[in-house]
Queue: 2 jobs
Job 1
Amino acid sequence: MKRIFSHISIFILAICCLPILDADSVRGASQTPGALTNSTQITTGLHPRRLPIKPRSTSIGATGYNGHVVVKLREGLTVTQAAGRLLEKNRGDLQGVNTVLARPSVTDLRRVFSRPLADLRAERLAAEAKSGRQLADLSLYYRVEVSSAAAAKSIIDELNAEADVEIAYYQPAPEPAEGPAEPAVTPNFQVDQDYLEPAPGGVDAYYSWGQPGGRGQGVQIIDIEGAWRDTHEDLTSSLGGELSGSQMTALDWRNHGTAVLGEMIADSNGFGVTGIAYGAEIGMVSISSLSTAEALSLATESLEPGDAILIELHAPGPRYNFESRDDQLGYIAMEYWQANFDAIQIATAKGILVCEAAGNGAENFDDAIYESVFDTTYRNSHAIVCGAGAPPSGAYGADRSRLGFSNYGERVNLQGYGRGVVTTGYGGLYSTGGEDYYYTSTFSGTSSASPIVTGAVACLSGHYQATYGVSATVDYVRELLVATGSPQYPNEAQKIGPRPDLEAAYAAMSAPPEISVSPVYIDTGITEGDLKSFTITITNDQTSPDWDFEAVALDTMLYRAPAADWLTVSPASGTVLAGGGTFDLTVTVDASLINAVDGLAKGTIQLQTQGGVPAYTLLVPVFITLLCADDETYLVSDSDQPQGPDYAWVDAVSLGSLIPQGTFYNTTNPGAALDDGTAGPLAIGFDFDFYGTLYSELYVGINGAISFTETEINSNGYFAGTSIPGAFIDNAVFAFWNDLVVDPSFGHGDLFTYQSAANDTFVVEWYQIGNFNDDADTLTTFEIIMTTDGSIAIQFADIGTTGLEQTATVGLQATGCAFEPYVDGSDPVENEPHADLIVTFDLPGAGCDCTGFGNLDGNPGINPVDVVHLVNYVYKSIDPPTVELPDCPGIDGDWNCDGVVNPVDVVMIVNYVYKSILSALCDPCACTSYPDNCP
């Protein structure tokens, strides 16, 4: 008999030490006036997140319309998507938003960030813990495909008028931030890579390469754009580096990506060119099938603190109504759009260094048209924005002066060469042998500038890690390179920032705090009831003094009232000696004291100076996911297994009664009573044991499930997919959970119940029920059978013609850790339902007939003849029991269920027959009697 186990595995990331914040450090700045605003904000104790400004109206040029609408719902909502509508967990249908999205011009609606919701949530919590800043819930972003520019404008303006919408905007398709083409020239290769030279002409990569980690070792860079030639002779480290997204097929995209990689990681091999950070690892994410925001999220998932992301894109901005233009005027940096900004902020909060092209639109980011989105005092992504400056050749103006196409303003931090860049790709410099041997000397734009800055960033990050053993913070890297760079010249009013100077940066580099703790966070899952301990180590690298500290475990549970002492730390105080001394602490988590089921327990270990003077504090966040122990309530088997149960259809249509269509209801969505409705309560006819609770009635849902307690078997009035565990309907049997419908106009069937004459069996049958998404599918028939012994059988007579078996959820869900899955949308595929299948869920001992136990001669009753049989068997090894009980898992004659038949059993049967004394006669059908029969 097959036993199907399941575990909940939710891994919540947490993050590192934070200083204690004072009141001023968490006080948000005022909302910028002058536009429609959002006032809703979630109070978290973190530095408040700056809300985007809603525009009063949107202008989108009709020429070159090729983008989509992005809508971000307000923080605090819990939203699912079903049947093309957005549903909120606590309120149901988001009516105003859905009314707008129901327009015929809307051709598709999907989440911007397709990663699992649990992963997005875990990443955000960890990043918030590390940064101390409230960050956006990326699961609330949706991408809306709209058929025309005019329709998109109307939809954006109406969505922005909805209170449930934080921001809606138009997202044009991004394009590579490459400058206008130049006539090809033929310089020498590496000797003309001026950007490798010492400052001020270059970033001084030559110096950096001689320093520990100065080639970018230990750092991974992910380039986000369209395509690359990873088979290029000078880019061997890029081969196979595509992490996600199918590449663009156009040669221009491929040349562009190849040129970018060459600047950063081209091999140091004595020919061609050499990358600034040629010791770094490289990865690539293409936007061919992804939005920029989603590409950012996927890159973030793959990286660690100290790694880097380069955004090699720009897009048409509001100056010319988001229209595509050949001259690229008005094109701006990708963080302008809110989903991109929020994804960048998640990455930088995680400790990832993000560099992005400022764009080639000749725009001043301080202009009022941008409504403060590029003002870091209003909102700060913490990315490094890269402008395009003139190289030292003098061919394009004064060295480090802003090139005319480069965007500029206070938001632009650092510059690289925007003209005359020697690198891989294009073939204007060299092309003998084909595309794998292309080189150019004319790569340009903020696209050529950004890889120079990113290469310098990777070198600095690698050197910092090699020097101090930890990664530098994102703000420190940005501030250090800006402070030590070769200044912009001559017109700093059109700010594009200095050019990095790695030698100067290294000279000014300072060590991280000298008292540290490892690990910087604790993140694990613990099975309910378990006790688990962890070691954290404090290190004091100060030359003096010793550090006297006290340790406190703080309970900051998210989803329940605190339970005393679930989190402890010992000892409560100690001294860490200076000069590299260490001190170990033991952190203990007692899961038996955590009341949350399948929930997240959050705590903090606070290490602070004894007496608070001088004040110094380290925080170690603790995130614990409470995992369910194996649920062994039911034994699961099916007729596909050897010696499995036999399929035996119970025809409730002919034997039982119709559930009248008029008795189905849907309180939230009354018009959908025969689509996503419920009927009940219906009397079962006996007390039915479901996970230890007896129920005498139940509710039946159209969509293939029953519940013993839930009066609405839907998700806020609609069908929604679900999984076991985690189903949103408690105390339920999911027979064939799908989007089903009763609709007589299409020949879709009805629901029936049957109660046996002996009141020992109750059946619910879905007869030729319809597929909501295909009117022609009218054949699906299945049933639930419940019996007085607590067993549940689900039978399938027909599963229809449109693949519903591939999306069905089948199994049991009570509450918390009480659940038993059978199949969730073809997982496992061998459990996909099919015609003539029975699946049984039996309590241990259910169906076991042990009424004859102890009757050894086969005659009715237990009498002296049975005593003789047992005496002869025990003392003379003759006269064995003649009664066979194939359904009974015990040993006939074993009256005390100890697994053997011996004199103790003789005494018990003698006392019973001759003295009417029955002491502790066991139940051989019970798991507790014969543990070997337990699941």
Note: The chain is about 15% helix and 25% strand.
Job 2
Amino acid sequence: MMTDILPGEPQPLVVSEMYCEYAVNPLGLDIARPRFSWVLASRRRNRRQSAYRICVSTSRENLRRDHGDKFDSGKVFSAQSVNVPYDGLMLSSGERCYWKVRCWDADGVAGPWSEPATFEMGLVQPGDWRGVWIGADPDVSAPLLRTEFSVPGNIRRARVYISGLGCYELYLNGGRVGDHVLDPASTDYDKRILYATYDVTEYLREGTNAIGVMLGAGFYCQPSEPDLTDVVHAYGDSPRLLMQMNIQSVDGDVLRVKTDETWRVSPGPILFNSVVGGEVYDARREQPGWAAAGFDDSRWSPAVVKESPGGVMESQLLPAIKVNRTLTPVSLAQPSPGKFVYDLGQCFGGWARLHVKGPRGTKITIQYGEYLEPGGLIDKRPYPGSQETNTYILKGEGEEIHEPRFTYHPVRYVQVEGHPGEPRLGDLEGRVVYSDVDLFGTFECSNPLLNRIHQNVEWTLTNQSFGLPLDCLHREKCAPLDPASVGGALYTRKHMPRFWTKWLRDIRLARKDGVLPDAAPSYRNLYPGGPHVCYLPLVWYVYQCYGDRRVLEEHYDGMKAWTDYLTSQAEDHLLVLGGLELCSDHMLPGKSPGEEEFMSSETPGAIIFTGCYYRNALLLGRIAEVLGRTRDAQNYANLAKKIADAFNREWFNEEKRRYVPESQTADLFPLALGIVPKGFEEDVIHHVVESIVREHDGHLHTGTIGTTAMVETLATNGLADVMFRAATVTSYPGWGYMVDQGATTIWESWGRFQPKNPRWRADSMMMWATIDRFLYNDLAGIAGPGFFGPDGVTPGFERFDIRPRIPEELHHAGASIRTVRGVISSRWRKDFSNRHSLILDVTVPVNSTASIHLPKLGGENCTVEESGTVIWKDHAFLDIAPGILAGREEPRTVVIEVGSGTYRFVISEDTHENPGDEA
């Protein structure tokens, strides 16, 4: 039996973090059986939970007395610490519950109770909504709505449940409530509508109170501007509001303030607003105090009762969009008389906040862009008409501060025209806006260029996170189901379960008779989407990362319907589908920057479609197996095999020992899928290396699908040095080239500009962000789920691999990620002063185990020490270190099985050979 590395008595398991539906103390749950998760901490190694007990109570006092009057699980013998479902008395609307958990370790020692946590229900039943939808006449762009109400003393708590379509700002007694912007997150409004819940107890006072709401168009009633946007599906003709405030007194009485025809409405200072077209704001039309009690609204009109948008009301559980950072400009120039251009130094999504003084009626135009003309002005060619333009008209009352409310822009440069004086550098700030997702996670290595590439990926992720994974910050403010873009976002290894589960529901609801659109929500109304849409791989990825079985259950019918639709379109298990080549290997590099092929002429779309069809069938069979649907599991496994066989019959040439037509993507994609005929894998890999190293001088020659496949494939096949070179080369094409050209994000195209294309490329897109998988998964070695390929983890990272693949040119690398079980980290450095040794520091969360793959550094034999103790020597495992469970030898690695804890391994090679690749 292992002994503890720490002296003294055994320490019990301590609950360090608690979550309900992946959130801390959430408000507004509308899930009948919410799920609990917790993270455990211990100073000892190899710690696992053997049992738990959850108590849920209606009061802190009951919880303190261990009285779970809503739910007491009793002692449950299970290691499950992720997504444990509530199984108590029915939860009612607005009910606030207190919960705690304690855990037992493998020796049966009980840990202490956790600190209390809470969750609170929203409006659970449709009948709980008492208000009606209200708004203004359709010609009012952004109406103001208000009402006053009286509140008795002795308030216990007050909650507002609100949805304003397309967007809203909420005010109580003159003060802004919350910090959400562009709220609620967009959906298919005729299917579901998100509402937010706010604790407004501290905003209210005894006596008369006032509530006010400003509405904007958002995607709900996006103005019809075909020259400005790809969005063609507007849901309603004008903004509308549904709101309810429940005020509970200490004696239990509930006062409800709700939207109805007694509210008053008026046009506001926003004359025009469009998600793409910008805003026109006339400060002269402001009405000071309009959201405060006592305001004279006698000239306002009665609110107009509006038709319901039709969708089911659903609580917005994903992190809200917020202003998360404020940037200071790095420079200010005047390239033309009266035209001032600020450089924020970074491409981001959001807007500018302008401080200005001037005469009443002065009209200032604020334009946004990602790049400049040679003369220094913003290049407007990508932004026709009023796109990415705001207008502000001064009221002339001292310093005025303006920032838009119901639009957002791609920002690097901000051009100000019509300024009444000469602006200063500090008069403008950049407001960085994105969904407030958990961005915990690090990557750092000895190569500054890779560090910069990683930083660019992180900026790109935030730029695409606006309640859904955007295609880009202008032109296509929608969420395509493109596998490369989604894979790029997933490969950043950020802990975003609420973001992804929200968007998966958007995808499920966007189906029409089993057919998926090209983007969800389906604002572009394009059906069917390409056969390569990423629905099934995303569901499987979420299940693996978060151990979320419910996501499999919720989407099973939709995934099956989509796969069966593809089967109906296949001929002899191949998806040829002429006319859909525009959905294949996107943005293949050309001979020089700007000559990219929009869709590859080298790799037929049928290869991509059929490969994705195979991936869908394979995953559906695995999902069916998890859910106990035995017949489906067998049927779809058989279907996957037939598709793979047909794929290889059609495109694999045994004589050439590779796929035809001959392209990097044609070879890499089946390698990533794992369908290369047995015995030919090395040959296919050889052709890939020949193409990259010799034909293209170390450069990739792949579009979006091939690049994603390459990132999943090269290092895992012993080619970390080849992948490292392709990532860091600073000549065209590649990520290093983007950085060398001044990129602060990941571009849409390998070449920034395409002069022959009337729709210039965006400076921020997720397609090439797939490179982060190489950084986290291969260089740092924290192995996660694959997107195209078979790599996986035990759901929720209960069991995973640490497998660093070490290029010769790199001297150290490390990363950390957050999982549902806690933080995983892996950091290594070469130590040439000690006979070519390698030092690897690893942290494994409590309730997880890991296989640590230690490279032999090019030799046949090595010695491994852990925290100063030799655990492997002369090809043999020495069972003498705490937390070390087992060891075995593979051709190029020594694999050490470990329990939870923090470890330091030192690998010393009995040779003077230089470190090389590790497979």
Note: The two ends are 33 Å apart (CA to CA).
